[in-house]
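Notes to self after the call with IL:
- keep both proteins in one doc
- input above output, always
- annotate only the second one for now

Protein 1:
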Amino acid sequence: MLRLVRCNSTKSALAERFQQILDEKLHLASRSAISKDEHLSLQLDCLEQFNTERSQSQLEGAAFEQKYQREIAFVNSEKRFNLQNERNDALQRPWNGSELVLETSRRMLDDSVAKAKRVERKPSRTIISPPVPLSERIQNAKELSLDYKVGKAMTPEEKEREQFKEMYKERLLGPSVFSNSASSSSTMGLITSMADARINAEIDQKTGTFSSQEMLSVRGKPLDKDRLKNSTDTAYFMNELLKKQDCLPTWIENQQGVDVEVNAFRANLKSQAVSSLHKLAKSGDGTQSVAEMKLALSVYTQDKLESKLLLMILKTKKDYFQSKIADINTKIRHYNLSAPSSSLHKWKLIEENEYQTAISKVVLNIDEALELANSQHTKVKEKQVSSSFLGLLGEKGPSINTSYSGIERPKEPLQFWQLVKDIFKS
């Protein structure tokens, strides 16, 4: 197809399209039709002028190369004389027998020694850094030796941050980061193989379609976009598979576990606060009534009573509660990483806030707390008394008098398999 050069060239797409239509019309039209159309005649004249100028320039270029072919060849061969010695040898005049003895001897000595071959090395991309000054090297060595002497190591926060990076990578990118997920030996590869086997079992080998009746209602029809607004296709269908298999998503199982852990921890903390309150209020054998214990606690103000209970809890259970809170916060972090939305995230536990909340609830409901502590104390005493009598009778359990220890009869072997053999023999 002919393509004409526009006299007034423009870069717009619309003009390019018009020019293409014009070229097609000019190519398909006859000579007489072109002569009748003024615009087509103008375009044809531009084309002929362009072809004439191009032919003329080609002829001039060929004539120039023919005329100066010797000089062009010399210029093209100039790259062979890049080295200074080769260029000098090529430009030296040949011997004619009238040279001086000194020049003749020099040229003979030069020719008798083989010239070293030039090895072209690739340019190196390495950045050569200047050497470190001696004073700076000494200072760096002093700092390293001082750190080693002091035993400077990573702080617990830095260690936790490094562990969090590794866990974050594994949780978000999946176990395929550390193992080959396509391998049948890995868990992911085994699940994929089982899924492929289930899919192939449902396919009709004759028709190539699924033999399930449910596919007749959805085959060839578009997906329901309303249920896919807030999730991708993959996430939606994975959730559907989990629902059909009666499996809960991982983040829901983690959520249930976290809730159980938090509730158990707070119940334990409240029980410890109640026990501390009972120890602070009781006197003697601890058989006082609730009114008497409340009267004994009336000397404390609310703030002073809360601070007193806090000191008692920290004195006995501080290390345990700190480690328990750290463990729960780790589980909360795992859950937050697996939760599909930030609106489902949970706040981590703060040690001071948990102490303050539990103690405040106990102090505000002091009557209920004292009744609970008194009933627990009574149950413990009754259990100790009953266990002491059981010890006297020889039963298993703690005993007050160690001289009356129970004698346990040695267990005789049942010989079950011997009985089975005897049955079959008879």
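Protein 2 (the one to annotate):
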Amino acid sequence: MFAYAEAQTTTAAPQATEYLITAQDNRTSLFEMIQSLKENHGI
């Protein structure tokens, strides 16, 4: 499991999105997760 915390510009508590990677995940779902991170969080 790894967590990705997006930088906040307000005084609100940081929002952390956790992505759970299990043995059941396959290469396709991992690729889709990475693509989602790139599109939504600009990494």
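Annotation: The chain has one helix and two strands. The beta strands are 2-5, 16-19.
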